[in-house]
Design goal:
heterodimer; A: 305 residues; alpha/beta; 6-stranded mixed sheet; 4-stranded antiparallel sheet; 12 helices; 27% strand; globular; B: 331 residues; mainly alpha
Chain lengths: 305, 331
Amino acid sequence: MNVAAEAVAEHPASRPASGQDAVVHARGLTKRYKNAVALDGTDFEIGRGRIVGLIGPNGAGKTTALKAILGLTDFEGELSVLGMDPRRERPLLMREVCFIADVATLPRWIRVQEAIDFVAGVHPRFDRAKCERFLSRTKLTANQKVREMSKGMIVQLHLAIVMAIDARLLVLDEPTLGLDILYRKQFYQSLLEDYFDENKTILITTHQVEEVEHILTDLMFIRDGKIALSSTMEEMGARFSEVLVNADKVEAARALKPVDERAAVFGKSIFLYDSADPEQLAQLGEIKRPSVSDLFVAIMKGTYA
Amino acid sequence: MNAIMKSPFAWLLKREYWESRRSFLRAQVIAAGVIIVLSILGVIVAEATRARWSGHIEMGGNGNLTEVLQNALSNNIDGLVRALDATMLMFGMLAAVVLFFVVFFYLLGALYDDRRDRSILFWKSLPVSDTATVLSKVVSAVIVAPLIAAAVVLAAYVVQQIVMSLWFAAHGLNPFPLLWAHVSPFSTWLHMLAMIPVNAVWALPTVGWLLLWSAVARSKPFLWAVAVPIVAGVLNFWVQLLGMPHVDVRFMWGDLVGRSLLSVMPGSWMAVYANAPDIARLANMDEANRHVGTYGMMYHAFATPEMWIGAIVGIALIAAATWFRRWRDEV
C-alpha cells in the first residue's frame, strides 16, 4: 500500500459509524484462492438508506466481496448481511437482497411473460402489477424472448423485475457494461426515481465512475483485498481538495504535504490534499472539489506498478 | 391441487418444462408423428394397390378390400387385439428410446448450461435453495418428461386409431367394435404409466452421475460423464488380462458402467431378472409380452438389492451435485 492510501485509511472519517443500522457488516473478511488473496481481512459497514459505490481496480477483490455478501462464495471472517449469515441462510437472505450481476444474465430462452410468471411464483416480495407498469414504458412485449432482445432491452427487463421486488439491499455489479449512453442514463434515472428510498440500500461496482458519481451517497475504494477508503460523499468533499497551482508556488504547495501531484497545462500542477487548511490552500491557487475518478487515481497510484 | 400448482416448487418444474419443451414434448411428438405419417402412407399404398388389382385381377369375393378386411378381422379377433396392443407398444418403445436420449442430455445440461451462459447468476438472485433447484431437475427428468412421453403415446395411439377408423369406415366397416371396443391396448398404456415410478428409482444412479458432471465440469460434461466410467472399465479389463487384482469384469461393466450411464433407459431394470429365471417364471409371460411386463414383475423390482443399492448411490451423487451447485463459485 502506498503512503497516500495508508494515510487515507487511517483517517477517522474513513470508518463511518452505522452501528445497528448496518445492512452489511464485515470484520476480518478474508478469501483466499489457490495462489492469490482476494480479500485480506478487510472490515467495512454499509448503512441503511445509502447508495454505496465500491470502486477498485481489476483484481482488487470487488467481485469477491459482492459474492461473499450474496452468499455465492465461502469465506473466512465475520460477515452479516441484514443480520443473516449469507453462507447458511442464503435462500432466506435472497428474499431481501436482489442483484444484477453484469448485463445479460437473463436466460436466452425465456419469454418476458415466463420471466414475470416465474419470479412472481417463487418470490414472495415481487409485485407483478408494478413490474408490468415498468415494462409498459418499454417496447418489450409479453411473448418476446430474451434472445430476440438487444442488450439494452434485456437490462430494461431485468431492471423492471428487480425494481418490482421490495428488497432491502440491491447489489449491482457492472450493471451498465456495454450499454449505450441512453440506456445507461435511463438505468440510473429509473433507480433513483422509482426505486430508491430511505429503507433501501444500493451497492454498486462499476468502472464508469463518472456515471454514478452524482447518485452515490458513500464511497468505498478497495485495493489489494482491503478497503482503502470508506467515506460519505459529504465527508469526502470536506476532506479532499484539489488546487491548481502555478509553477512558482509548487514548492510551497509541496510543503503542505499533498496526497498527490500531477501535471496540468501551461506548466501548472494539480495538487490533491487530504484535510488541509482551506485558507492556506487558497493562497496557492484555485480550489476545486476533486472528482471521484481523480481521487481514485491518486489513491490507487502504484497499484499497477 | 391448485395450491400445489402455485407452490414455488411447481414453478421450478414449469421453468424446466419451458426451457426443455423442445426435447420433452416436441421430440416425442415428432417421433410419434413420423410413425403416423408412415401408417397413412401405408393406407395410401394399400388403396393404390387395390385400385390396380381390382382393375386387372379377379380377387376372392368381389375383389374388394372390405371383404378381405372383414374376413381377416372377424375370424381372428384375438389377433386383432394383439395388433392393437402391438401398436400401443410400438409407440411406447419409440417414446422410451426418445426419452432415453432426451433425459440423458437434459441431465448433462441441467446444471451446466446456465453456468456457461451465466444465467445462473439470475437464478441465484432469487430466493430458491440449490437443493430445490437440483430436485426440480431430478423430478423433471424422472417424472415430468416420462409423463409427457406417456401422454404423447396415448394421443398418438388415438390419432393412429382415428386414421384407421376413417379407412375402415371408407370401406363400410364399423370401426367401433373393431378398433375401439378393446380394453387391452389401454391396459398396456396403464402398464407404461405404472412403470414410471419403477423407472424413476432405477434411474437414480445415472441421474446422479450425469448431474454431478453437469455441476462440476468446466466444459464438455458429456465427455467427462461418459469417458470416466468407460476408461475405468477398459483399464480394469487390462488389469484383469495381466492377471492382477481387479474388479469383477461383469460387475464393472454391468453394475458400475452400465448403471451410471444407461439406467435412464425406461424398463432397463428388467435386467435384474436376467439372473433370476424363477422370478421371470412367476410372471405370466403371455401377459408380460403383450403389456411390457406385469404389475407383479414391475413392483417385484423393488424387492431386489440392485434397485436399492443403486438408489442410495444415486441419492449420494445427487447430494454431491447439489453441494457443487451451491459452492462452486467460478461460473
